[in-house]
Write a structure and sequence with these properties.
single chain, alpha+beta, 7-stranded mixed sheet, 7 strands
Length: 165
Amino acid sequence: MEYQIRQAAVEDADAVVRMHTLAHEECYGHLLSPAFFDARRASMPLRVEKRRPYLDSAQPRIIAMDESNEIVGFADAGTGRDDDLPGELELYSIYTLRRTHGTGLGVALLKAALGDLPAYLWVLEANVRAQAFYVKNGFQPDGTRKLLSPEWEELPEIRMVRSDI
């Protein structure tokens, strides 16, 4: 399957939020409560409005569309936000719909967002599949761990860093 990968535009906000919500349900359905997902669906209009100015950026806000022009993946990166800054570039997020897993789309999105640059990211501690993907693409856990906010039911995350590839 072929995907069109491009920089997102403000007009993509609604489709990105819908895709992001579905990806959360697919990836984290076994980790978070039904109430979490009910709240995510209920907050979609507000999240669309917050996403619009975020997409209006020169920093990587990459989307992938399938042959029917449906957004099936996205990745975004920018200046690192951690106080102890393990690197200047942070991969903020990367998501693909389950039906695209194993197609190479994740690698294509990662390359589009980061190239081969050193970077770091945060990943759910229980998301072993994502961690394996990141290790395969040069990232290693650096031993730093934190809990997400109560909104995210305080799930633990670990930080992974790619120094060079």
